[in-house]
Amino acid sequence: MKVIALVVSVVSSASAWPVTPADVAKLGKELTAAGAEKDGSKDGQIPAFGGESKPTGSWTFGKSREDFWKYKDEKPLYVIDASNVDKYADKLTPGQIEMIKQVKGYTMPVYPSHRECGIPQNVADNTKEGALKSTIASDGWSLDNAVLPSVPFPVPDSGIQAMWNFLARYQGLGTVYQDIFTYLSPRPGSDQSIAYHSAAIAYYPWGAKGTHNPKENGGLQQGSYYAYSEPAALAGQGTTQRYYFSKDTDSFYYFTGQRRVRRLPSYAYDAPMIGYENQYTIDSPGIFGGNPDRFDWKLVGKKEVYIPYNVFAMQRLNAKISDVTGPHFVNPAFRRYELHRVWEVVGTVKSGVRHSTPKKVIYLDEDSWIAAVGDDYDAQGKIWHVKENDITPQWEIGACILNGYVQNDVISGRYILDMAVVGTGKDIKNVPPDGNDPHLKDSFFTSEGLQAVSSQ
């Protein structure tokens, strides 16, 4: 028994340090600071890494980002539709193919590829410093040690390491949404959609200047706050959640009828979100969120896939919402696909654990580590949800974030557009590490904080 324990210990230690000193030396050279291949593809369709995106002219917050993007006048190279999908199938996910073949009129406009999702120098420095130190805990899923903000595992050798690169990606100190637009398309046979508006704030305490580790701030990975203003049935209700690097999520909800905050102990994983007609689960926004502990994550490898990229159209603040939301899918005029290299990660629900989608396939952009596309499978092994994140540079923090999320249900025919500011007139406020916002503090993301702000 002692020999077996020793062998397990050795294996665990070996998998905890996937990067060799030789690998670390490649960061910033053959590899980008985030661990992506710096060179482009052999056929030239994917360019070499171009460095951090910069605006043209004198862009300042509040001005249209798209107007200051140097490639704003580009036109699609081609459009993938039902007539030519088989030609491009080797660079599409099974879910994307399903959408094109099953949903009448669904298309994917493909544009020239640009690789300008970078990370600031301090994040690059932390990545290099922490590459030999980052570890997954003995439970197999917690981020036990890392030098943050960084890419904890720039050269991953397991699926859980790649997933933490996504979950702990640099996003500044926080993100403030003055108005998030969310749209749930009508049920089949109906024309009654639901439009949601909410204010939201995300807080990443380890994103502050300097170096931090996952055990600081009580192990808080993210503080999250939502407060609904529409529809009327949800107006005034709000939620605060505290996500951790190594323990269960804390969830609190303010109910207007009771004028009080209640803890929701099971408001995580595949629990249905309040007010979304059982179409949306807690861990769905952004393709995947919350603790990754219910799945075994397998790192399949890299492949080339058409993914949503440089989708500045989703930050057209003066657009008409009605132009964005079609009856069966988001208007392709507000979608942009580019060919990029991605890491393919397959999540399979662990034995003895339940989840409504027992298999997930997630494709992580190699430059930003953002989950770009995801396919959810049901218990019968059929594709259920086809998910996409719109990836776009945000110049004030020197990195890319997701500025829109779409979940297509190929079984019911409904879709959800979420995390969008398009048409709201109020842009995303990305707070840099040395930025200041009165809400970005631990006490705001508590039950007491939710009670105080909701009672105003």
Automatic annotation (TrEMBL):
Residues 1-16 form the signal peptide. InterPro entries: DUF1329. The keyword Signal applies. Keywords: Signal. It comes from the Bacteria. Residues 35-56 are annotated as: Disordered. This is DUF1329 domain-containing protein. It comes from Paraburkholderia phymatum (strain DSM 17167 / CIP 108236 / LMG 21445 / STM815).
